[in-house]
TrEMBL record:
<keyword id="KW-0234">DNA repair</keyword>
<keyword id="KW-0963">Cytoplasm</keyword>
<keyword id="KW-0235">DNA replication</keyword>
<dbReference type="GO" id="GO:0005829">
    <property type="term" value="C:cytosol"/>
</dbReference>
<keyword id="KW-0515">Mutator protein</keyword>
<comment type="similarity">
    <text>Belongs to the DNA polymerase type-Y family.</text>
</comment>
<feature type="active site">
    <location>
        <position position="112"/>
    </location>
</feature>
<feature type="domain" description="UmuC">
    <location>
        <begin position="14"/>
        <end position="193"/>
    </location>
</feature>
<keyword id="KW-0548">Nucleotidyltransferase</keyword>
<keyword id="KW-0460">Magnesium</keyword>
<comment type="subunit">
    <text>Monomer.</text>
</comment>
<dbReference type="GO" id="GO:0006261">
    <property type="term" value="P:DNA-templated DNA replication"/>
</dbReference>
<dbReference type="InterPro" id="IPR050116">
    <property type="entry name" value="DNA_polymerase-Y"/>
</dbReference>
<keyword id="KW-0239">DNA-directed DNA polymerase</keyword>
<dbReference type="GO" id="GO:0009432">
    <property type="term" value="P:SOS response"/>
</dbReference>
<dbReference type="GO" id="GO:0003887">
    <property type="term" value="F:DNA-directed DNA polymerase activity"/>
</dbReference>
<dbReference type="GO" id="GO:0006281">
    <property type="term" value="P:DNA repair"/>
</dbReference>
Amino acid sequence: MKSRVSDSLPQRKIIHIDMDAFYASVEQHDFPELKGKPVAVGYEHRGVVAAASYEARKYGVRSAMSAKIAKEKCPHLIFAKPRFSRYKEISKIIRNIFLEYTDLVEPLSLDEAYLDVTQNKKNISSANQIAKEIRQKIYQTTGLTASAGISVNKFLAKVASDINKPNGQKTIHPQKVLNFLEELPIEKFYGIGKVTAAKMFSLGIYRGKDLRGKDKNFLIQYFGKSGEYYYNVVRGIHLSPVKPNRTPKSIGVEHTFDENIDEEAHLYDKLKSLSIELYNRAAAKSIKGKTLTLKIKYKDFSLYTRSKTQEHYYETADEFYTNALRLWELRPYDRAVRLLGLSISGLNTSGQKTVYVQLKIPFEDL
């Protein structure tokens, strides 16, 4: 069996940098009395956890978890109020470190980004060495640790960055890509969440080699448009280039529930949590929008969306929640819900110019 991806595909050197528990790590750095203690960034008496330190994660505390549940899991959990201006300040410092090596930087959020270092400003042939230098500079400059993934495309780099977290890195060499993907548990594939993984398990798909054994028509039949994506990535094919200056058209959050929910009061709580989470995510990026969209997926997988556009930008989590409730009242029928999502579009970033650059040059060593 072939062990490397086709030479006919664009051969890039891509790094995915992901800060370790970024918001919580900033709080522990700025307030040394928090070091070594379970910390959650958020508000203790309302809302959701924006980030959790590794000490908190040992108790099962996770981002997007309600503060109430987080406190139940870890009674001695310390809540730190979000300081997005501080997070953005440090994110800018980190971004400038990236730009020392390449202008092809695609930020995904304040704490992670893709870098294309196929050609780089320092003429370093090894992407692995570049990632080490970047992580060292981040630590020296900010006192924070980062993890990195290195490979031939964005999908593989993203998967790799999770492998040796925290404060580590992983390279997936082109000659080992297909073997690596064959043994990768399906739930470790970027873009496959709990619900999709469970569906794959029911179809006998547990690892990459099982996924690769299914033809494209089969995957499209069971997973729709995503089926083609799964068919490609398990073969090491992901052609999306690193897109510097990427301007988002929308920003959103959604939760798939472990069990279908049919109690309306419970769903109201979920909408409240989503509203706060959406506000936190948008505020962290200084993004505002004029259109709010509610997404509902029912237990039969039928999907419903409804939007509300207003003349001014949505400003607060309460405004998100109030209008989400109005959109909820417009739902077509009462059925158990498996997923809720909220997003904003019509953003204040829409006037910014987006520039896409793609390199097609020979591949050397990672």
